[in-house]
Amino acid sequence: MGKKRSHREPQHAQAVRKGALVELTITSMAPGGEAFGKADQLPVFISRGAPGDVAEVELFDVRKKFAKGKIERLISPSPDRAEPPCKLFKVCGGCQWQHISYDKQTEHKTSIVKQAIAHLGGLSESVVEPCVAAQDALFYRNKVQFPVRNPAGSNRILAGYFKQDSHELVNIKHCPVQSGELDAMLETVKEVLEEYEITAYDERSRNGLLRHIHARQSRADRKILLTLVLNCTEENEPETLGELAELIMLRDENIVGVAVNYNDRPGNRILGDKTKLVAGVDYIDEVLKTSNPKLPNKLQTGLTFKLSPTSFFQVNTEQAARLLEIVYLQAYGHLPEGGKLGVVIDAYAGVGAFSLWLASGCERLIAVEDYGQAVIDGRINAQNNKVSNVEFVEGDVAEVLPQFADMGEKIDLVVLDPPRKGLEPEVVRSLLELAPPRIIYVSCNPSTLARDLKYLAQGFVPETATVSNNESPEEATDGEGTGLERPAAKVAQGKPGKFGYKAVRIQPIDLFPQTYHVESVATLERVLLDGSV
Fold first, then answer.
1. Which domains are assigned to the chain?
2. Which residue in the list 92, 95, 175, 444 is annotated as catalytic?
């Protein structure tokens, strides 16, 4: 009788099937945050793995072009591994890369951008610079949004993040990527909600009042603006809401305002369309400033931004300032001392962070934003910072940019900061018609950035263009099996025009330490399609 084994033997490579245990070496990190290796040449995506790991992996999902697996046993751990700072890391889906040392995280983010640029964009990796690391890899988040649940048979409020690839909630008390004040805020809010017997929303029955706890914090003065997302309309909200809000503020002096957002629609959308102040003030002030002597004195002193509950703002204040430094130097660094551009467009402008930061380098700046509250905040921010040459235009970028193209107005620079889905085909076509000498494209999704850079380089949107932003390996794998998405849905046609755009520099920057997310700043220069400038 053979010796009894304490674990299952890994099966040979040809036995790749669901439930199989295979031995493999992890070689890289994929764009969706999972580790990547191969079993019998089949790409395998593994959560919580690190390049250099040799591991026994159980395959729980096997498809024709890829498989998913989980590590059953580390045979030889990677030297890139680090001790996760959070005891809930193995179960919480909020962060994906806490098990990887921070210097290696930024290397992998550089690699992910290079993969996308080369495989999806058909561009040279040489234009991609090393990722700019964050000074603080922990306690950096200025905004949090927690789904909530009630345990069975209890009115206790649980709040936290979902387990990876599930809607099973992980209740948290301390999170190492947010501040201690936000930890304390969460506990206070949960206590008061329980005292008032507020029920948590159940997505199956669609019963229960509280859907999310949403908060943002100023890094300048540490004040917190709290928003409770409710499964109701204003007409049927609880009568005790004002009293509840006042008690929350009384117990936590860092909370200066409590708002409610009404979202009684089914689905996973976090915020509804209407937000109302219940107690305190409906904004916090955030300051963005630089210590770079190459930038104007006004930016070294700092700009102050009014942030409403639902306005978009980068979640990492310190890295947001570094991002703005990069954009400013790419926009104006080539100009002679004292030189200015004429007209600059800031598309997807939000509350005006890029617009106000760039205003000193041009005669006129047009900020285009479709969210009405952000436009209101942006105009107030311009007034408060004594910036008079910025004009906010409320409207969809895909509708506003063609209007400028039709008018034939000369635009010297367009700055883009679109959502994860990237640019709509109409926006790409309008950029090619406007033909500014330079475009700066800020992206939070390497895959859609690469797609859009390809379209801008060739000077038209092809028939197979898409606006997909799905990063899961189910979408498809490229020829190297890296998990990069492929265009699929037909949405537009086009033919080459006179101009295209060459990417001369792509600068990744880490705004989201401990996660796979990476921001990039791409600088594009106009070229004739015969290759001349």
1. 13-76 (2.40.50.140), 110-135+326-340+360-506+515-528 (3.40.50), 143-282 (2.40.50.1070)
2. 444
